[in-house]
Amino acid sequence: MKKNEIEELASGIREGNRAALSKAITLAESSLYEHQLLAHELIQKLAPLTGNSRRIAITGVPGVGKSTFIESFGKLLTDKGFKVAVLAIDPSSTLSGGSILGDKTRMEDLARNPNAYIRPSATGGYLGGIASRTYEAMLLCEAAGFDIILIETVGVGQSETLVNGITDVFIFLQIPGTGDDLQGIKRGIMEMSDIIFVNKVDDFGIEKGKEVKVTLTRSMQFLPQKDSGWKRKILLGSGLSGKGLNEVWETIEDYFYVINSNGNFQRRREEQNLLRTKEYIKEQITNKAMALYKKERLNTNMLADPFWIAEKWIRENIKFNQ
Questions:
Q1: Per the structure, how many domains does the chain have?
Q2: Are both 164 and 203 inside the same structural domain?
Q3: Residues 96, 192: contact at Cβ < 8 Å?
Q4: Closest CA to 134 of 156, 98, 160
Q5: Among 122, 114, 116, which Cα is nearest to 85's?
Q6: Helix-helix angle 306-317:264-293, to 10 degrees
Q7: Do residue 242 and residue 306 come from a single domain?
């Protein structure tokens, strides 16, 4: 791709052109270093248009109904006049690298909505439950004029917490009957959650949903208070029927009022920029080191400790200022 094409992409994105946006995200997702340079040149041109959306992470155990929730919630938001982008992250095989990428088929109605944009991406084995270029895709969607970015993550896992580092509000979906006293829920996920939505109450019954709410409320008594000053909220409803989704949006608005009033919103965005800078440093150092490593074949001894083999190779090939 030539530099003049970057300017054409920038113009298209400023005008809200979906084809230009998709092409730009594909460029950002490329693992080629040259493409990464071009992608960030494009993002730099669009920087004044970024940062104005509400960034919402939605996660939950597999089978909790994330896609159904997002389709109904996205429809609610577009009906309110918002432009909504959904970055739906699909798991990919660590062996073949393949993924299902079926989120558009699971959100058919929302995919046809002129005020919504759905972009499925494979994780590529990336830790954190988010594709390695979800952050760039989010910035590009903001530049294209989307007011709300919904990030659907792969599902609760030990490393998925990195999604919290690029979003403003964290919604955790839960369903009744997933184990006694929340055995399957990681404490870290609960700590990060701003809103917990007990989904599928139509299937399990409102009384069962209330039982889960009581159990969650008890569990949250042992969690530290959030730095944002926000008190976690537990809501009941159904993504399928739409029950409780208006309350979810009202709670999100209350949340943003709180964090804007106390200055946490700005502080959090600044902390996220610092975190991304650190991630880019680690990524670029790793990529450059591995590119150098591939050029030579180490003479490894099966009895030698791989740590010392690596230590010796780094000392001989990479110079750090002490």
A1: 2
A2: yes
A3: no
A4: 160
A5: 116
A6: 90
A7: no
Cα–Cα distance between 170 and 164 in angstroms, integer? 7
Query: 114 with 146: CB under 8 angstroms?
Result: no
Tokens 């080191």, residue? 289
The SS3 call for residue 196 is: strand
Distance CA 311, CA 322 (A): 16
pLDDT tens, position by position, 22-65: 999 999 988 888 898 999 999 999 999 999 999 999 988 778 89
Is 189 found in the same domain as 54? yes
Helix (H) or strand (E) holding 89: strand 84-90
Residue 31 lies in a domain: no
HEC readout, 237-290: CCCCCCCCHHHHHHHHHHHHHHHHHCCHHHHHHHHHHHHHHHHHHHHHHHHHHH
Asked whether the CA dihedral 235, 241, 247, 249 is positive or negative, the reply is positive
pTM of the model: 0.88
Tokens 């009384």, residue located: 207
Nearest residue to 86 via CA among 167, 21, 148, 170: 148
Using the 8-state DSSP alphabet, how is residue 55 labeled? E
Other Cβ atoms within 10 Å of 196 Cβ, number: 25
The CATH number covering residue 215 comes to 3.40.50.300
Asked if residue 42 belongs to a domain, the reply is: no
Tokens for 54? 């509400």
pLDDT digits over 244-280, tens only? 999 999 999 999 999 999 999 999 999 999 988 988 8
* Residue 209 covered by a domain: yes
How far does CA 85 lie from the centroid of its chain?
12
Whether residues 117 and 237 share a domain: the answer is yes
Rounded distance between C-alpha atoms, residue 188 and residue 112, angstroms: 36
Domain that residue 279 falls in: 273-317
Q: Is 40 a member of any domain?
A: no
